[in-house]
Amino acid sequence: MNDHEVNDPAPPESGVSPDFRCGFAAIVGRPNVGKSTLLNALLERKVSIVSPKPQTTRHRILGIRSSEQSQIIFVDTPGLHSGGKRAMNRHMNRAAVMSLNDADVNLFVIEALRWIDEDQRILEQLVQRGRPIILAVNKVDRVTPRERLLPYMEELSRKAHFAEVVPLSGLKKSNIAVVPELIAKHLPLSPPHFPLDQVTDRSPQFQASEIIREKLTLRLHQELPYGLTVEIERFAEEEGRLMINAVIWVERTGQKAIVIGQGGEQLKEVGRSARLEMAELFGRPVHLELWVKVKENWSDSEQALRQLGYES
Ligand SMILES: Nc1nc2c(ncn2[C@@H]2O[C@H](COP(=O)(O)OP(=O)(O)OP(=O)(O)O)[C@@H](O)[C@H]2O)c(=O)[nH]1
């Protein structure tokens, strides 16, 4: 099943103009070029996990940006991996290819002054699909002196026929405002698919699990790249408070000790920062309980992936 069909589209809003445009924009690019950061800047709020380590985005996260003229449904693709053998890698590749198929326009994100073979490979796949490609040249804040950018942009323009080439910085939020306008030009005339005030079709449970995973990833640095996932077991409202119980699944007993940390400090700190962010996101106090459990070699087994909801 196509992820976009999970939620029935909302009935068309009354009163939208006949020039209204709506469609799907895939955010594509190799790991760590800054796709999640850019998406968050485009949506003006945080919906997708951001971390300094590559390949942290496992799920396709749909962010929605609506204005009076358009509704852009962003698909944040996992990194297109080269040659991954484990089940998780296969899943990620399938997900990436699926969102390329869905998109009306591709926002291809690269790093300023850094074009490598993997960028070339992704560009070739995009060109084959024949959909418009908007090239987002990210991280321009790192370019010094600024004059180096212009010849680089000219060089890029010769690599393919891009609909647009935009230098920007997702982190510094510079030159971001123009991007939705450029994307909207390439979307079909259509009424909005979702209510205009909706920014994501992900459930609050999913968002809660992503917040926990992000806090873990930030604290654990190199120690647990793929080896953990988060499952929400309870998500209930009681007397104005959200009661959330979550299990952090790891692959090995040794990793369990790492996640918990000495005297439980690590886990306590993860819980504290996750709880604060959830309280802000959901607009009410949160009571969060975290457990760490071992699921042997889960990321190697298709069946275990399915149990945890990574079906594609
Ligand atoms: N200097 C600078 N750093 C950036 C910019 N955008 C993102 N970064 C950093 O680049 C790193 C990767 O950013 P992400 O947004 O997680 O990258 P991603 O492409 O979504 O990564 P994957 O999930 O691995 O595919 C983080 O450390 C960001 O802070 C930018 O405009 N300028």
Descriptive overview:
The chain is an alpha/beta fold. It folds into 2 domains: 182 residues, Rossmann fold; 104 residues, GMP Synthetase, Chain A, domain 3. It is built from 9 helices and 9 strands. The strands form 2 sheets. Strands 2-3-1-4-5-6 form a 6-stranded mixed beta sheet, sandwiched between helices. A 3-stranded mixed beta sheet has the order 7-8-9. Helix 4 links the parallel strand 5 and strand 6. Helix 6 runs antiparallel to helix 8. The protein is globular, with a radius of gyration of 20 Å. The N terminus is likely disordered. The site of guanosine-5'-triphosphate has 24 residues, from helix 1.
How is this fold's topology laid out?
Layout: E1 21-28, H1 35-43, E2 61-66, E3 70-76, H2 87-102, E4 105-111, H3 117-129, E5 133-138, H4 149-157, E6 164-167, H5 178-184, H6 204-220, E7 228-238, E8 241-250, H7 253-260, H8 265-282, E9 286-294, H9 302-307
Parallel strand pairs: 1-3, 1-4, 4-5, 5-6, 8-9
Antiparallel strand pairs: 2-3, 7-8
Helix pairs in contact: 6-8
CATH topology of the largest domain: Rossmann fold
Q: What's the N-to-C terminus distance?
A: 8 Å
Number of domains: 2
Assign the structural class, choosing from mainly alpha, mainly beta, alpha/beta, alpha+beta, or little secondary structure.
alpha/beta
Order of helices and strands: EHEEHEHEHEHHEEHHEH
Q: If you average the pLDDT, what whole number results?
A: 79
Protein name: GTPase Era
Function: An essential GTPase that binds both GDP and GTP, with rapid nucleotide exchange. Plays a role in 16S rRNA processing and 30S ribosomal subunit biogenesis and possibly also in cell cycle regulation and energy metabolism.
Main location: cytoplasm
Pfam family, one: KH_2
